[in-house]
Amino acid sequence: MFQPFEYREGVLYCEGVELSKIADHAATPCYVYSARAILDRFHSYDQGLFGIPHRVCYAVKANSNLSLLNMLAQAGAGFDIVSGGELHRVLKAGGDPGKVVFSGVGKTREEIDSALQLGIHSFNCESEAEIALISSLASRLGKTASIALRVNPDVDAATHPYISTGLKEHKFGIDIAEVEGVYQRAAALPGISLDGVSCHIGSQLLDPAPLLEAATKMLALVGRLRAKGIAIKELDLGGGLGVPYHAGDPRPDVDTFLRKIRQLVDGHNLFLMFEPGRSVVAEAGALVSRVLYRKKNGEKEFVIIDASMTELIRPALYEAHHEILPLRKSKFGTVVANIVGPVCESGDFLAENREVANVLPGDLIAIMTAGAYGFAMASNYNSRVRPCEILVEGDTWRVIRQRETLDDLIRGEEL
Ligand SMILES: Cc1ncc(COP(=O)(O)O)c(C=O)c1O
Ligand SMILES: N[C@@H](CCCC[NH3+])C(=O)O
Fold it and tell me: Which residues form the active site (predicted)?
């Protein structure tokens, strides 16, 4: 697996580009992504499914920058979307609407209507009321919408409770114990074709075992539905494979996982889909930031940097861990500190009580594994402009999203 960030003689590089050169030209904070790492990970899914009918639908929510979507579209990806905004991005990026699956518990009438008109591949439906709405909108347009029901297989993803989605008590999907009845009632509706079953049990799974358990339950369900005359043709197993955020974490091997999936689906005559997000883009990205100040409150050391929870909210939201590396290794040892941003919230930290390089004001650091759910969850809180995004390709780099301006902050507001 290609590792995009590495030290060369004590200096941190992304592919062939020294990160501090980017920071000096583009200013900080900035997100930096490796094109090769993204394509590498996408291809590991696509090639792992070689020879069986399949589509890898990248989950746009993980990182929705147009350049990344364009790169993935050119590599043959489909897209998993959860809003009309994501569909707009896919189209602007040159993605094929015919390769789009539309997930999410709260699709609006307008979003469904425009997805139908654009001819997306299918809807992953999450309730009977939603199925009824799609049926009536498709009938009115004289179309037949391809539908999969998102099944809640009641499998414990054993991940952070905020990002686990496959248990009965979660808002997602339709209870596996009730879904057959829902299929049978939906079969009577016009304007829809019940082509698939889908599931997504949660995110950041370092152990793929629950995904395999869910796949097994889904295949049994396909058998039961077919026996009732519902001709299921497609199985969408969602996303969820995790990445090593801690230096010692395991990296689930996509190839090994897909080999096990292939054994399970063998002979079932299904078009297979996956919706990976994090495992495609997380390790390809870093958030580069400059140290503004050092200070001590009582016994506590603080490293105050120019990035904050508005650029990367994961530590504040999930107490998520991201490795923090100096762009230049120094001889000044380490310090145990809280790495915090300028935002007026005690929760505004990128790391707490962490042993990091003994960086000084002006030094540059990289917050690693930030390519997924980083910029995508960035906000303008405290009227902070969102950072620029940079794409590295070999020895070259370019801005793929400009840093916002102060005028961007007030666009659309009136006195
Ligand atoms: C329906 C659906 N598909 C795919 C994904 C992508 O998940 P991940 O980034 O964990 O691969 C998500 C997010 O968890 C999701 O909700
Ligand atoms: N945003 C979350 C994951 C949620 C995935 C979306 N269903 C994260 O940063 O880990």
Answer: 344 (proton donor)
